Amino acid sequence: MPLADQPTVPKLRLPDFPRPTVPSALQQIQTRADYSHYLKDVIRQAGLTLRGVEELTSEIDEEAVSRRSTLSDTLRNNKIPTNERVMKTLLTAIYNEIESEKPDIVARHVTDAMQVWRRIVHVPPGAPVLTAAVEGALLDQAINALAQAERTAQRLGTPDAPGLAHAQRILRELLT
Fold first, then answer.
1. Whole-angstrom Cα distance, residue 46 to residue 99?
2. What is the per-residue pLDDT across 2-11, written as a single tens digit (0 to 9) for each?
3. Could you tell me the pLDDT band of residue 12, with boundaries at 50, 70 and 90?
4. If you write DSSP's letter for every residue of 138-154 in order, what string do you get?
5. Contact 9, 104 (CB under 8 A)
6. Nearest CA among 81, 130, 152, 176 for reference residue 165
7. Counting beta carbons within 10 angstroms of the beta carbon of residue 8, is it exposed (0 to 12), middle (13 to 18) or buried (19 or more)?
8. How deeply is 3 buried, as exposed, middle or buried, from its count of CB atoms within 10 A (0-12, 13-18, 19+)?
């Protein structure tokens, strides 16, 4: 049978599967290690190597380059960059690869990820990030413990009672 007479096989196109959305993954982050895992995932999702990340960050901001050796050590140890300029440049480079034709979406993803990063960075390493409800409950416990200690000190007639009262006033001022 000549080639021209053979039936052609239609080319099949695989369906586009939706990618996980960045904001949904960010909502799950509670620790620096979680953020490190998130960074590894988005770097993989962008199809980048650490060399590629280094090159892209140098194109965006020569003074905020994410060196591949530093980034490798950081991610291997489940840590995150602590310099805001470096982090913003890193995220911009990664999201530009994922959403290259949508600069408004890139900007929104960078903003969302930076908000989570700021929250995470200001917490001591290894400590969980507290939500407002948990923080409120912990502060209530602290005030109750101070009040109890103040009552005990007053009952025992110790001179520490004014210090406890002062600490309680400071806590109340900070919370209101």
1. 9
2. 555 555 544 4
3. very low
4. HHHHHHHHHHHHHHHHH
5. no
6. 152
7. exposed
8. exposed
Residue 172, CB-side half-sphere exposure with 13 Å CA sphere? 9
Contact 99, 47 (CB under 8 A): no
More confident residue, 108 or 27: 108
Model's pTM, two decimal places? 0.57
Q: What is the distance between the alpha carbons of residues 75 and 115, in angstroms, rounded to a whole number? A: 19
Percent of the chain with pLDDT over 70: 65
Q: How many residues does the chain have?
A: 176
Q: Which of 114, 115, 98 is nearest to 106 (CA)?
A: 98
